[in-house]
């Protein structure tokens, strides 16, 4: 098929299904068809094409896209049209990928269900009464419903892996520093990382390859060689040492989910991996420390939304402080406001030592736990999410919602790569297996995931 036919196919699919699923905030048919046409013309001229040229993709709406509205699902950015592309977007544009549109998320990527979107919730394609997970729920639902073959998301505490698990697809958070964050609307800068969604590990590897590598515009993006991820998918995992941290099968993890993951671990053992139980004793502290560090960074990052520079500006206000106050009051949702308050408090002079410093110290201990485990193991295996997809409205308590990320948050705290691959069903709903790797060793995770699927 031509790139234009392929784009048309997906645009028709979006038109038919998205009224029910609501994965997209913005669909960009003109953009998509123009990009596809350019690829078809290149092919007609017999110019060399990237393997992903002409392939459609959906982009999470916190990735800046030149000339295309980018909202982070916040009312405060309802009319923001960036004058530049995020680095990952620029790279995909360059190789000729076709942009179908921008996908829904929890406002500023704060949440685990996409219910915190400032516009509307997204529904899980497996059961429209359930959430797709979050915060990249729109991207995950789009791929699961075949409204896009591939998508990009961002993951600060699980926002790629958890929705991938809940929607039955593959999702990867690369190592912190592997992919440029330039042009990603910042939530918590020391934890954020952009990554791929796909239906297979091989597709995931191909997309990761396209977005990885050094970028002078993001000083935390390291200048390391990007390995050949696709070439590493040999199907061979004999002798690889896999650790199973017992803390990830404890309280809160639904027994049926544990069972599905244990079964997947058996499959890996039958493929020749050497499996052994291990312990990461600081696991229990990760969630609490994360909910100091992430809000602290968000309170600083979100200070730029002042009603002056871009986005919403309140209609009625008195004085310049009043303008900012009114705009932020009208533009931010409840969850975002709560986090700004918590973060500002944790960073204030009198409480800095008690909260922020302790959280950072805890973070160091978490990383050391992982470092110690990786002296013995090539990768760790856990559930991605403690439960399958829950019902829309079921987790009204914000604390309960935050428990959805117990298995994924430690990985961000340590800056490690994590891959979620589907590993069966519980009551007809998909469950995910999480593979955690050494820093910058995405290759091993992809190899294991590919051998498993
Ligand atoms: N659910 C977590 C949070 O709300 C993680 C979100 C994310 O990874 N962006 O912070």
From TrEMBL:
GO terms for cellular component: glutamyl-tRNA(Gln) amidotransferase complex. Its EC number is 6.3.5.7. PROSITE patterns: AMIDASES. GO terms for molecular function: ATP binding; glutaminyl-tRNA synthase (glutamine-hydrolyzing) activity; transferase activity. The active site is at 60 (charge relay system), 135 (charge relay system), 159 (acyl-ester intermediate). It catalyses: L-glutamyl-tRNA(Gln) + L-glutamine + ATP + H2O = L-glutaminyl-tRNA(Gln) + L-glutamate + ADP + phosphate + H(+). The keyword Transferase applies. It is an enzyme of class 6 (ligase). One of its GO terms (biological process) is translation. Keywords: ATP-binding, Ligase, Nucleotide-binding, Protein biosynthesis, Transferase. Residues 6-446 form the Amidase domain. Heterotrimer of A, B and C subunits. Allows the formation of correctly charged Gln-tRNA(Gln) through the transamidation of misacylated Glu-tRNA(Gln) in organisms which lack glutaminyl-tRNA synthetase. The reaction takes place in the presence of glutamine and ATP through an activated gamma-phospho-Glu-tRNA(Gln). Belongs to the amidase family. GatA subfamily. HAMAP family: GatA (MF_00120). This is Glutamyl-tRNA(Gln) amidotransferase subunit A. It comes from Chthonomonas calidirosea (strain DSM 23976 / ICMP 18418 / T49).
């Amino acid at each position: 098929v031509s790139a234009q036919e392929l784009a048309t196919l997906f645009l028709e699919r979006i038109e038919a299904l998205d009224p029910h699923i609501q994965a997209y905030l913005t669909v960009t048919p003109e953009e998509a068809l123009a990009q596809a046409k350019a690829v078809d013309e290149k092919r007609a001229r017999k110019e060399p094409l990237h393997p992903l040229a002409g392939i459609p993709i959906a982009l999470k709406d916190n990735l800046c896209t030149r000339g295309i509205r980018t909202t982070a699902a916040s009312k405060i950015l309802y009319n923001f049209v960036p004058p530049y592309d995020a680095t990952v977007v620029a790279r995909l544009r360059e190789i000729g990928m076709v942009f179908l549109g921008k996908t829904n998320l929890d406002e500023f990527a704060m949440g685990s269900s996409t219910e915190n979107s400032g516009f509307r919730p997204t529904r899980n394609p497996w059961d429209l009464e359930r959430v797709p997970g979050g915060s990249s729920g729109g991207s995950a639902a789009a791929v699961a419903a075949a409204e896009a073959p591939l998508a990009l998301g961002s993951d600060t505490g699980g926002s790629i892996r958890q929705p991938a698990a809940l929607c039955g697809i593959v999702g990867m958070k690369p190592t912190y520093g592997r992919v440029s964050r330039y042009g990603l609307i910042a939530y918590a800068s020391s934890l954020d990382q952009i990554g791929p969604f796909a239906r297979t590990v091989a597709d995931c590897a191909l997309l990761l390859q396209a977005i990885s590598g050094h970028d002078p515009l993001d000083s935390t993006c390291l200048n390391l060689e990007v390995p050949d991820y696709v070439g590493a998918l040999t199907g061979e995992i004999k002798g690889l040492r896999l650790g199973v941290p017992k803390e990830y099968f404890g309280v809160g993890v639904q027994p049926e989910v544990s069972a599905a993951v244990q079964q997947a671990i058996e499959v890996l053992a039958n493929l020749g991996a050497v499996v052994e139980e291990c312990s990461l004793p600081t696991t229990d502290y990760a969630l609490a420390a994360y909910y100091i560090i992430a809000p602290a960074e968000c309170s600083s990052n979100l200070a730029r939304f002042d009603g002056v520079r871009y986005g919403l500006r309140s209609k009625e206000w008195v004085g310049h402080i009043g303008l900012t106050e009114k705009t932020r009051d009208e533009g931010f949702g409840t969850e975002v406001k709560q986090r700004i308050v918590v973060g500002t408090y944790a960073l204030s002079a009198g409480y800095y030592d008690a909260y922020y410093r302790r959280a950072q110290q805890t973070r160091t201990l978490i990383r050391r736990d992982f470092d110690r485990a990786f002296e013995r193991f090539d990768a760790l295996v856990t559930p991605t999410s403690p439960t399958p997809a829950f019902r829309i409205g079921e987790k009204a308590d914000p604390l309960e919602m935050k428990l959805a990320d117990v298995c994924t948050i430690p990985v961000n705290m340590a800056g490690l790569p994590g891959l979620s691959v589907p590993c069966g069903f519980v009551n007809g709903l998909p469950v995910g297996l999480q593979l955690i790797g050494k820093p910058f060793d995405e290759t091993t995770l992809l190899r294991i995931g590919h051998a498993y699927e």
